[in-house]
Design goal:
The chain is an alpha+beta fold. 29% of the residues lie in helices and 27% in strands. It is built from 6 helices and 8 strands; from the N terminus they run αββαβαββαβαββα. The chain has a 5-stranded antiparallel sheet. Strands 1-2-3 form a 3-stranded mixed sheet. The longest helix is centred in the first third of the chain and has 17 residues.
Length: 223
């Protein structure tokens, strides 16, 4: 079993989602976790806490030691307000949310698009049926530049579901649906939802992981 398999098994076994995992210079291993919807945690809420990061850190330190993983420092944190989407499961979870994507090749002279993530639609993309069936092909509902009133979260989810069923929305709300596959994008991230008070409603305490890691290192050391 590789160190990456160990990380994924450990994180999911504790009831969290493994969002991303990366290794950088000087032996730093970064692990990004998120809470799963409809899952019970010690502390209520949708956001990753310091306790969550500490729990995962401690278990990972033990698990990675069993496979003699080569790393010097471990950091566990939330993915932040603009969390990346990498797997089909990530995309399926956030259907109806606003997403920004960066294409590998330009389409109509652009590489960057944002819109409401929806399921793929027949006739609106050239994706292989097998990719659609495997959950690797998606659509992005592009809103008209003239539509100045932002969509509510409920309206956005309804819009995505209607688009998946082939229901055409009024022209003033939607220009088109941009179809894409995971192989065609370089990066995809959630667009942070900002409240009127200037704070993101999807904040995920990105700094909490560093605090949790420091506490865990003081308590149990590191490899």
């Amino acid at each position: 079993m590789t160190w990456l398999n160990v990380v994924e098994t450990t994180v999911t076994g504790l009831g969290y989602e493994l969002v991303d995992c990366e290794r950088s210079s000087h032996g730093l291993l970064r692990v990004y976790i998120d809470r799963l919807p409809d899952h019970a945690y010690d502390l209520p809420g949708d956001l990753v806490t310091v306790d969550d990061c500490e729990k995962v850190t401690r278990q990972l330190q033990y698990a990675l030691e069993t496979v003699d993983a080569d790393y010097a420092r471990l950091e566990v944190s939330s993915p932040g307000v603009d969390r990346p989407l990498k797997t089909p499961a990530h995309f399926a979870r956030f259907v109806g949310e606003e997403v920004a994507i960066s294409l590998k090749l330009p389409f109509q002279g652009r590489k960057k698009y944002s819109g409401i993530l929806c399921y793929p639609q027949n006739g609106q993309q050239d994706a292989d049926p097998a990719q659609i069936e495997a959950g690797q092909a998606w659509g992005l509902v592009l809103r008209s530049a003239e539509a100045v009133k932002p969509l509510s979260k409920t309206a956005a989810k309804k819009l995505a579901k209607d688009q998946a069923k082939g229901v055409v929305q009024p022209a003033q709300d939607v220009d088109q649906v941009l179809g894409f596959t995971l192989d065609e994008i370089r990066e995809a991230r959630l667009v942070p939802e900002v409240s009127f008070k200037g704070r993101s409603s999807r904040a995920a305490t990105p700094a909490a992981g560093g605090v949790a890691v420091d506490e865990a290192q003081e308590l149990g050391g590191q490899k």
